[in-house]
Amino acid sequence: MALYADLHRHLGGSVVPRILWRYFQRHNPDLAQQYPDYSEFEEFYTRERNTLDEYLELHTLVESVQNIDTLPYFIYRLIRGAYIFENLAYLEIRYTPYLRTNPTLSENQRIEQMRAIVEVVDKASKVNEYPIITSQILCMHTRLSYDINRAIVDLAADNKHQICAIDVAGGDKLYEDKIDEFVKLYQYARSRGIKTTGHLFETPYGSYPELLPYLMRIGHGIQIPLQHPELLTEVASLNQCLEICPTTYLKTGTLDDLKQLKIVFDRCFEAGVDMAICTDNAGLHNVRLPFEYENLLTQDIIDFGQLQTCQDASFRHAFAWPYSQPPSALLVGLLEERENTKHSISHRQKTLSP
């Protein structure tokens, strides 16, 4: 039985290098010529970058081949891998729908096509042989206009059966010039009953406390315990959950060593702030969720009890998990029910025996 939840996974960064390289070889001759050797492509695709901005440029490579026709190809393989190799019971897939539309269309036509993109992602995510509960988070983007970002909010509000929340993505250095816009957009989203998360406090450049009151979860948020621990009380009082993505901080040059996360976990546990351990971009990292767990444990950043606490928090803060308990508790209930049935049958047999 699948047991885990990943609350922070980007569609653009979810494609593992082998699958992306094979797609190039089969369907995109131009990119196939650029990357003829798989080992060289894997090294390029998964190596550490110096900054978050440099790291985010890799998303454009995947976004260039993810469109309304090809999305089912990539999503099927994402769901298959998440179920078989990661034991996921629940997955929130986030992406900017506008960046999957046809770039040759007008802006209004691209905004209209976003609805079709959402439908394709929803349909492709429902794979009977790999039963994972999925939902979509639509990302506004720092490089898009206010009108496009508001259209993304409206799309989420009009399709709550498919979309569980909104987010804001893009380099956090770009937030400053648009911070008033994003405050208005988040206020508008909350007024329409949309759940919210946002990439915030990931790097020292992403510290914008103005957005905190409008978020139900915080994408990353590690700079709060590292640089702004005075905010932890507010985060705890708002019942916000930090979406911690360990490998990301090495790949973006945000942290030099994974052990620097120990102070993040220690301060959050002490302040009563919930954390969910996530992958962010499992494909770009070539690291799946169970390995994120293992890396934190083997480097003594957290212990097994703390890991369980974070796993439980993932389901408690999941925007579209339909049950009041995580899968492990449901499984225990099924086993107890089975044992009770066996004992009841055994008791009746003994009672009826001559």
UniProtKB/TrEMBL annotation:
GO molecular-function terms, A-Z: adenosine deaminase activity; metal ion binding
Pfam families: A_deaminase (PF00962)
InterPro entries tied to this protein: A_deaminase_dom, Ado/ade_deaminase, Metal_Hydrolase
Superkingdom: Bacteria
Keyword field: Hydrolase, Metal-binding, Zinc
Cofactor section: Zn(2+)
Enzyme type, top EC level: hydrolase
Domain Adenosine deaminase: 5-318
GO biological process, one term: inosine biosynthetic process
EC number: 3.5.4.4
CC terms in the record's Gene Ontology section: cytosol
UniProt similarity note: Belongs to the metallo-dependent hydrolases superfamily. Adenosine and AMP deaminases family.
Protein name in the entry: adenosine deaminase
Annotated organism of origin: Cyanobacterium stanieri (strain ATCC 29140 / PCC 7202)
Source organism phylogeny: Bacteria, Bacillati, Cyanobacteriota, Cyanophyceae, Oscillatoriophycideae
